[in-house]
Design a protein that fits this description.
Chain lengths: ~375, ~130
Amino acid sequence: MRYIDEFQDPELARRLLDDIHATVTRPWALMEVCGGQTHTIIRHGIDQLLPERVELIHGPGCPVCVTPLEVIDKALEIASRPNVIFCSFGDMLRVPGTGRDLFQVRSEGGDVRVVYSPLDALRIARQNPARQVVFFGIGFETTAPPNAMTVYQAKKLGIANFSLLVSHVRVPPAIEAIMRSPSCRVQGFLAAGHVCSVMGTGEYPGLAERHRVPIVVTGFEPLDILEGVRRAVHQLERGEHTVDNAYARAVRPEGNPAALAMLEDVFEVTDRAWRGIGIIPDSGWRLSARYREFDAEHRFSVTGIQTREPAECRSGEVLQGLLKPHECEAFGTLCTPRNPLGATMVSSEGACAAYYLYRRLELTPAPQAGTAAPLEASPVV
Amino acid sequence: MCLAVPGRVLDIGERDGTRMATVAFGGVQKEVCLEYLPDLQVGEYAIVHVGFALQRLDEESARQTLELFAQLGMLQEEFGDPWEQAAQAGGGEWPFADAPDAAPDAAPDGAADGVRGHDAVPAVGAAREEGGR
Ligand code: SF4
């Protein structure tokens, strides 16, 4: 149990682990949906502390990773226009589009700005009435309500030079798609806690029942993950498949009603493409007809974009839990955070980045004497 | 970006008809929109994501999470200068002629430094000693 001393409460961690070890009698495969959870797991070596018969499969829950290449290319195209101020969260800066990223657009003279909140982008729009301000609206159910509020405010305040490039995705249809895939091995889910803080747990009982999988709402800290795994394993061993909330301190069954009402007003459900995976029915949001005037895709004609994914990148399989990052041939050689081929290597929540940051030294073969060493200095974490 | 961080409400006011608060996360302070938790009060804790309070949190869990995030450097990841981080990820120096263009609400230098080490932890502890709410 090599990393257990790093746990906030090592004694409690040990008790949870002992319980899991004592409970498991058969092999089980659980998927943690959220990329934040993947990072906690790899960073603390939780997968190595669990019994060998409990496998954690990484899910597609990283909004940066699943934003389709076409949308990134549209963002790059809009951000390059002279009269545009393009605002984005910081973790989109290095996500590769076809051939370049937002960071490069900025160094080529594009006015790309990083904001902490979408409301900052709205303020920039008010301060620059002669220019078009576009906000890159990506994210899951946790980020969609803030973006929805921003569009609502823009309409209320009559800020006509603001628009949203929307690429919002929803978790439950992704779980549905994963369970329907013929190659699916997942037997239980750790559902993403903060998504449920907003949405509540109402979308999950149907999924759990239909696919006979336990779904345990789980937080992001190491002890949260252990407790989520413990509850899922107990259900599996007993042959149960219910929705259980192991993150009650931040998740109420009804979610956040004010946020849900705003989502309902501003967005409507639509099919969405997920990078590396393809189109998942009903898995996203777009602006509803009332707010269509704030849709950047309508305001700027960005057509005729030719996307080109690097052939070596297997992030689609990584995102579906079919391949572990280090099993990709490009991992740590052709593809590193400095020179990422796929978004899963560049995003702070991406599975490839997690393996690179915390596991690289164990996974890459030692460099031969006399050859160029592929290993860079260990990153500061 | 996906990280939602617990913070403590310091004061509450209105801007353009919107309920806003100043919220402290360890050593960093940010303007946060309260429209989704309209009855949140000064002294209470909430989970905050991209400038919006999304769900209440009790003080003890908030404090524990903040301490852990500070230790793991995750607050720096969330509130540090994104251009600098992106430049580092790309293996280069600050590449542009002008000064780093951080978020308009970037905390003052002293406060931002608080997230770089373990300094954020005493700040959270201090909030508790003040008596919380
Ligand atoms: S290691 Fe790089 S190339 Fe391989 S799947 Fe991950 S992002 Fe793609």
